[in-house]
């Protein structure tokens, strides 16, 4: 919602000059008005100083209109979003409903529709604001239902999925947590996937995540974690 914290012309100029200097711009925006204005700024910067190496980012993306999901894909804007919030909806967030109305809150945190429009989505937990979700984040992305890490899990565990049409597949969720996050940070040649020549970073699980029912992914245990080729955790 307006008013913007920055004068719009100043914001456009600042982001354009940042891109001109070779910097990515990483903006936190939640309301659809804020998201829309940030997209305006990014498009303006790209038009003034086109640079294929620039990777501009919008974090959170709580409310994104269908039209702006298309614009984000066409402008190669990265969505840095948190699956831990995908369960926020009309049944779990009465304060949000009181502020914005049920019709608005019903469309919180799009995911599949962003991907379908060509938006690269990089997932994270927003730690320390939220717990470090890890496997639970993958489960939420697949189910958009509350998980055991949620403080109010007992209250919301039996609620239906929030916007089930925005659920994604396992491959997309894994990519968003790994190689897409690395791409966002210009580290896709270093980490984010298991390939010869990359930093050896991986987790060994006690179950096959591809055959585990989506609702049980949160129960998978990590047996070993490898970072830069060295074991930094081993379950005993």
Describe the structure.
With about 240 residues, the protein is α/β, with parallel strands linked by helices. The chain is about 35% helix and about 15% strand. It has helices spanning about 10-20, 30-50, 65-75, 95-100, 100-105, 110-115, 135-145, 155, 170-175, 180-185; strands spanning about 25-30, 55-60, 80, 120-125, 200-205, 220-225, 230-235. A four-stranded parallel β-sheet has the order 1-2-3-4. Strands 5-6-7 form a three-stranded antiparallel β-sheet, with no helix packed on it. α1 (about 10-20) crosses α2 and α7 crosses α9. The longest helix has 17 residues, at about 30-50. The protein starts with 7 loop residues before the first helix and ends with a strand. About 30% of the residues are buried. The mean pLDDT is about 95.
Features:
alpha/beta; three-stranded antiparallel beta sheet
Main sheet specs: 4 strands, parallel
Helix content: 25-40%
| Rg (CA only) | 19 Å
Strand order of the largest sheet: 1-2-3-4
Shape descriptor reads globular
Q: Briefly, what is this?
A:
This protein has 236 residues and is of the alpha/beta class. It has helices at 8-20, 32-48, 66-74, 94-100, 102-105, 112-116, 135-143, 153-156, 170-177, 179-184; strands spanning 26-29, 57-60, 78-81, 121-123, 202-205, 222-227, 230-234.
Question: What is the topological layout?
Answer:
Layout lengths: L7 H13 L5 E4 L2 H17 L8 E4 L5 H9 L3 E4 L12 H7 L1 H4 L6 H5 L4 E3 L11 H9 L9 H4 L13 H8 L1 H6 L17 E4 L16 E6 L2 E5 L2
Parallel strand pairs: 1-2, 2-3, 3-4
Antiparallel strand pairs: 5-6, 6-7
């Amino acid at each position: 919602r307006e008013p913007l914290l920055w004068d719009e012309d100043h914001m456009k100029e600042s982001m354009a000059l940042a891109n001109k200097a070779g910097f990515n711009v990483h903006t936190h925006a939640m309301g659809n008005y804020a998201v829309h204005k940030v997209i305006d700024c990014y498009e303006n910067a790209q038009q003034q100083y086109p640079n294929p190496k620039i990777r501009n980012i919008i974090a959170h993306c709580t409310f994104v209109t269908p039209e702006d999901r298309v614009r984000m894909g066409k402008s190669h804007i990265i969505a840095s979003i948190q699956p831990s919030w995908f369960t926020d909806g009309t049944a779990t967030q009465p304060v949000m409903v009181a502020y914005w109305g049920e019709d608005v809150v019903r469309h919180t945190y799009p995911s599949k529709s962003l991907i379908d429009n060509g938006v690269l989505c990089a997932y994270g937990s927003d730690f320390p604001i939220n717990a470090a979700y890890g496997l639970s984040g993958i489960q939420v992305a697949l189910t958009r239902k509350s998980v055991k890490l949620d403080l109010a899990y007992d209250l919301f565990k039996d609620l239906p999925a929030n916007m089930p049409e925005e659920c994604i597949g396992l491959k997309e969720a894994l990519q968003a947590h790994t190689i897409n996050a690395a791409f966002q940070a210009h580290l896709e040649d270093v980490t984010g996937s298991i390939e010869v020549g990359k930093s050896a970073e991986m987790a060994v699980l006690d179950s096959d995540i591809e055959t585990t029912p989506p609702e049980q992914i949160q129960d998978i245990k990590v047996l070993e974690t490898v970072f830069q080729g060295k074991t930094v955790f081993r379950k005993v």
